[in-house]
Design a protein that fits this description.
This protein has seven helices and 15 strands. With about 240 residues, it is α/β, with parallel strands linked by helices. Strands 2-1-3-4-5 form a five-stranded parallel β-sheet, with helices on both faces.
């Protein structure tokens, strides 16, 4: 499923863009869904759920939260979501490079239809790039998952629960120890905050009062003995991103 979000406060243009994308994607035989958001605020209110989208088309010039700021919020939780800037101007190349933007679509351009088709082709090509994925033998069946979509793993009664953001938050289970699994995951991306919790550091919004608060509001307890370590690690990570 190729899921696309269009974020533009010009609703008529957003509908036109949806028609252009839909027409070409049907022509290419792609399976897709396209949602429209009328403001940057509406999009970023999704929080971590924005990673359910394959690609986001962002109007740069919106009121309050513009496309640049919305892209920054997306990049706080994901480098995997593909971003396309939609603009009437061509003076945002530095922001595009910094935010790893795939393409720019120029409003009012005489070749807009061709630009949309070329953009879709670029997105499809981009999806062939390798992302950090691992295959796990869950009790629900063997599944390959993107580590970027893995929020945290909980050890519960000799069983591990993988909390993974797909179209919505899903939980998969396996019989394994957290100690053994911890050694198989990137050390800089996951932090052991508790004997029972291994957490993706990028999804920690804050560390306070002996708990971590994830970007989707979930709170996980930190034992007193680990609190200083987790707090300092989180502060160090914030300084790097």
């Amino acid at each position: 499923m190729f899921r696309i979000a269009i974020c533009d406060d010009e609703i008529l243009f957003a509908e036109e863009l949806r028609e252009q994308l839909s027409g070409y994607m049907m022509e290419k035989g792609l399976v897709f869904e396209i949602d429209i958001y009328g403001s940057g605020e509406a999009l970023i209110e999704l929080g971590i759920e924005v990673i359910k989208y394959t690609a986001v088309f962002l109007d740069i010039n919106m009121e309050k939260i513009d496309g640049i700021r919305a892209a920054e919020k997306i990049r706080e939780v994901s480098r995997e979501v593909l971003i396309v800037f939609v603009t009437a101007y061509v003076n945002y190349s530095l922001e595009g490079y910094r935010l790893d933007v795939v393409r720019y679509l120029l409003k009012g351009n005489a070749n807009f239809t061709s630009m949309v088709k070329e953009c879709v082709d670029a997105l499809v090509d981009k999806l062939n790039y390798s992302v950090a994925k691992r295959q796990f033998d869950f009790t629900e069946g063997t599944k390959e998952i993107s580590l970027e979509r893995l929020l945290y793993i909980e050890s519960n009664l000799h069983k591990l629960e993988f909390h993974i953001m797909e179209d919505d938050l899903k939980i998969y289970t396996m019989y394994e120890t957290l100690n053994a699994l911890e050694n198989k995951l990137p050390a800089n991306d996951f932090i052991r905050i508790h004997q029972s919790y291994l957490v993706n550091i990028k999804y920690i919004r804050n560390v306070e009062r002996y708990k971590v608060i994830l970007t989707n509001g979930i709170e996980l307890v930190i034992p007193r003995a680990r609190y200083t370590y987790v707090k300092e690690y989180f502060i160090s990570y914030q300084g790097e991103v």
